[in-house]
Write a structure and sequence with these properties.
547 residues, four-stranded antiparallel sheet
Length: 547
């Protein structure tokens, strides 16, 4: 500030005023140019302070080359060639996904006459048993977190009992209202929520995150008068934060992480916070690498900067609260951290509830009110809803309540011991494979690993897929991960054996793995024009609805 005052003191204001009077048009142009230059310089300085000079120049180069490629794509000849290649990739995706099954009918319109119950159930059973990854044998990363027949049978019965219920009508379904409130209370207790803490159920982690972002955006507008809010998240934070930023039209700043630990760079996060920041984010644990950010430090930073702090524990869910009791290093990720304003926790992951349930928690009711939508002037009456949806399924909430009360604290504690222990065993096994290394410092149920040349990590994924394993591909850096579940526990030896064999094959024949997954993910991570990858991704989603 003293330097700024000193600079302003040296300005010849009388001469500037005289020039403005003589040439008002040119003075206005000069002022506009100066303002534009100042804005761009400020943005550049901010980026350098967050990412460093080398990374900023790399991002600038990627942006510029991407812009050139997008411009070239508009050229008549080149654009047609690129679109043909995109169309081919999308067609290949659709053909791999959409297959005709001999003797199986396609239902493209409502049947003219109702079908018999037996026929309907026979079709559903056949489709349920269509061949895919053998998740029952623990070969899938995540996806099905419990899978035990008895628990599935119980939650199915609970689902059936509440099949027609809707939380939108508490007067019609008072028992469901009580069940939903109890689900929220049980999760709050798990996360050390005090008497003022509260929350709501949602349809999943993405909606929980979107609701938390909305609450902070409205809080920033109403309490601090912020009209152009922004949020600051680690680059490893879940993509749902990007979705929320796009939905609400707000700026999101991605903060780099430490190369070794994969935890957020706290100094960069501090520099990224400005007067319009309404929320900072930390994960416990991250989806890509299963790493927990330094939540205590982020909590202190949030208090100092007077911004909200969301802990994303969607993946950590019912694992992180039991770590200490299970004999593992404790990760404090709850309301004991004074800076925490919201937490997301997926009950349908390691809470073992049916898919479509999560809880978003708030430090107090006032903060939760910012999540709600109300309108008192609608001709249809006074309307209020807690989350994105109006009508919601009461069945999944009942299934969630049934799973949580069936498991009990002792059940969740044992699963934490088994599943985290499984991750540790896999991690140690990976560390013994010379061509592989663990990415970051895992703290939960996920372990990510990358490879050294000449071993192509995506080639390893293809070889593991041949052996029946479904691993999750990562990028920046190129890696794979497995999210261990209850079903992974008994197959650790098989996993490590197949992994060693896959690595050996890829190492011995590197030239055989330039296609397959490498062609897709290598392409996606290197091409500057991300709109090409976006088009292919949209093609993938289109294929989900193809018949």
């Amino acid at each position: 500030m003293p330097q700024v005052i000193s600079t302003l003191a040296r300005v010849d204001w009388q001469r500037m005023a005289a020039y403005t009077i003589r040439s008002p048009k040119q003075a206005l142009i000069n002022a506009a140019i100066a303002y534009f230059a100042f804005r761009q310089a400020t943005k550049a300085v901010r980026k350098v302070s967050i990412y460093g000079l080398t990374k900023t120049l790399s991002l600038l180069w990627r942006y510029m080359t991407g812009a050139v490629i997008r411009h070239v794509r508009r050229a008549p000849g080149t654009g047609v060639v690129v679109q043909k290649n995109i169309a081919k990739m999308v067609k290949d995706i659709e053909e791999s996904m959409v297959t005709d099954i001999p003797g199986e009918s396609k239902y493209l319109a409502i049947p003219e006459h109702g079908m018999a119950d037996e026929e309907i159930l026979a079709i559903l059973n056949r489709r349920q048993n269509e061949v895919g990854i053998d998740w029952k044998s623990g070969r899938a990363s995540g996806a099905v977190y419990h899978g035990g027949e008895k628990l599935v049978e119980l939650t199915n019965k609970a689902y059936g009992l509440f099949n027609i219920t809707n939380p939108l009508h508490p007067g019609v379904f008072p028992g469901l209202r009580r069940i939903e409130a109890e689900v929220v209370c049980m999760v709050l207790d798990l996360y050390n929520g005090g008497p003022e803490c509260c929350g709501t159920t949602t349809s999943g982690g993405t909606e929980s995150i979107i609701m938390a972002v909305r609450a902070h955006v409205v809080w920033g507008r109403d309490e601090r008068g912020i009209e152009t809010p922004n949020i600051v998240v680690p680059i490893t934070a879940h993509a749902a934060f990007d979705k929320a930023a796009e939905y609400f039209g707000i700026r999101i700043t991605h903060v780099p992480v430490d190369h070794k630990t994969q935890k957020v760079d706290l100094k960069a996060m501090k520099r990224a916070i400005d007067s319009d920041t309404v929320l900072v984010v930390g994960s416990s644990a991250t989806f890509p690498h299963g790493v927990s950010d330094d939540l205590e430090a982020i909590s202190n930073l949030a208090i100092k900067c007077k911004v909200g702090f969301h802990v994303d524990s969607c993946l950590g869910s019912f694992i992180m609260p039991f770590l200490k009791e299970a004999g593992f290093p404790e990760i404090v990720c709850d309301f004991r951290l004074p800076g925490v304003t919201t937490i997301s926790c997926d009950t349908h992951k390691y809470g073992f509830a049916p898919k479509g349930t999560s809880v978003v928690m708030y430090r107090n009711k006032q903060m939760r009110h910012y999540q709600y939508f109300t309108i008192s002037t609608w001709p249809g009456g006074i309307y209020a809803s807690p989350t994105m949806a109006g009508s919601r399924s009461g069945a999944v909430i009942a299934g969630c309540w049934a799973a949580m009360t069936k498991m009990g604290r002792d059940g969740y504690l044992q699963e934490c011991k088994d599943i985290v222990g499984c991750r540790l065993e896999i991690q140690r096994g990976i560390e013994k494979i010379p061509e592989l290394y663990v990415v970051g410092e895992p703290s939960s149920t996920v372990v990510a690993f990358a490879s050294s040349q000449p071993v192509n990590i995506y080639g390893v994924m293809d070889e593991m897929k041949i052996r029946g394993w479904d691993l999750s591909p990562l990028q920046f850096p190129s890696a794979l991960h497995i999210a261990c579940t209850r079903l992974t526990v008994p197959v650790v030896v098989d996993f490590l054996s197949d992994l060693r064999e896959s690595v050996s094959l890829v190492k011995a024949n590197p030239e055989n793995y330039s296609k397959g997954s490498q062609a897709v993910y290598g392409f996606a991570s290197t091409i500057p024009d991300t709109t090409i990858v976006d088009e292919v991704a949209c093609g993938f989603i289109d294929a989900l609805y193809a018949i």
